[in-house]
Amino acid sequence: MNKKFRILHLSAVRNWGGGENHIENLCNELSEIENGIVNIILCVENGAFHKKIKHSDLTVETAPMLIKLDLRYVAKILKLIKKYQIDLIHIHDSTALALAVMATKLGKLPPFILSKKTSFPIKNRKRTLYKYNHPQIRKILCVSKKTMEVTSNQIAYPAKLKTIYHGTSLAKSANNSFNLRQNLNIPLNKIVIGTIANHIRAKNLETWVKLIDYIINVKKDTRFHFVQIGSYTDRSSKYEQKIKNSGLNNHVSFMGFVPDAARMIPQFNISLITSQSEGIPQFIYESFYHKVPVISTNVGGIPEVIEDGVNGLLTNPFEPQRLADKLIALSSDKDLMKNFAELSYRKLIENFTTRKMAEQTLAEYKKVLYGKNGTGN
To answer: CA 20 → CA 27, 42, 115, distances in Å?
Structure first.
């Protein structure tokens, strides 16, 4: 590519999660593989994402967001398009999409690429269908085949859809000065079961609490200590109260939001996911990278990366006892744990790296900028 082109990445999410990790990884990888790309990130002022990346080498712009559809964010989009002479806008969440669509009413915008990072179906509402089918959107990049399948039901031109798995970066350090066992007073003989998930409905931590209650109070298996990392919400007090009421405090540690939480994963013996809805959580890729075996529900695109009994264990959502039984069984089979971890690592290296994700995303950028946009027009 001879000409430089400029991408404006839009994030209107206040918390830090896998979607924001994807933006950071994508921008870093694009800078490595293509000298002609300039990435600018617009995020929520003083939000968790802003705090995480403001001291990085990335070009970061912010806008205040006191309400969900804050017009100051819209104004900032228009300002940045002129300031940086933006060629393409990459939208990373549904709120950012709504704000970008609003901006089209106030000025001329470059083409959009939208990332669909969850398996939530697009609601059959007039305004929602309008924004997801807006003519400015030239490509919709889906985090999994399941997400692509669900999304296609409400998209007028399915040729816009493309599956690109996110993956994880191989250029990282697992060094972490925070020792979980020492700082959380976890005895050396305990098996550490780690979960990284914000306290939101999709992560279904109700099932996580029920699983722990079943293992400790019903099965009387006290070999485990459960570590939960993720941003608190209005649901958090309910989870903590249930843990307390069930007499489980000595078996559970809530850590809240932890910057670079993936660095904790090497200290887990097993990674546990209880979600009721997902794209593919970054936590799975990070666990693969650090060779920690994974037990998960089989929602969203998760079965595309974990084959039950081959490189991990899966159950249906809302089945805490079945999930618990699989956890107990796996924890008692060290050879199987090692086999799962090795197979998953190999699968990650071959299929799910951020370098591969960035290369595939760059190819879609070029198609849009050079006219092959797949809109069906």
So the answer is: 11, 12, 11
Place of tokens 């609601």: 123
Q: What is the pLDDT of residues 305-315, one digit of tens each?
A: 999 999 999 99
Q: Domain 180-351 is of which CATH architecture?
A: 3-Layer(aba) Sandwich (3.40)
- Domains of the chain, residue spans: 5-167+353-369, 180-351
310-358 pLDDT, tens digit each: 999 999 999 999 999 999 999 999 999 999 999 999 999 999 999 999 9
**DSSP per-residue codes, 168-219:** B-SS-----S--HHHHTT--TTSEEEEEE--SSGGG-HHHHHHHHHIIIIIS
Count CB-CB contacts under 10 A for residue 22: 23
Neighbours of 49 (CB within 10 A): 26
CB atoms within 10 A of CB 55: 8
pLDDT tens, position by position, 254-272: 999 998 899 999 999 999 9
Polymer length of the chain: 377
* C-alpha to C-alpha distance for 97 and 120, rounded to whole angstroms: 15
* DSSP letter for each residue of 40-52: EEEEETTSHHHHH
Phi, psi of 64, deg, nearest 5: -70, 150
Q: Is the pTM for the entire model greater than 0.85?
A: yes
Mean pLDDT confidence for 230-237: 96
Instruction: Give domain 5-167+353-369's CATH number out of 3.40.50.300, 3.40.1550.10, 2.50.20.10, 3.40.50.2000.
Output: 3.40.50.2000
Distance CA 49, CA 24 (A): 9
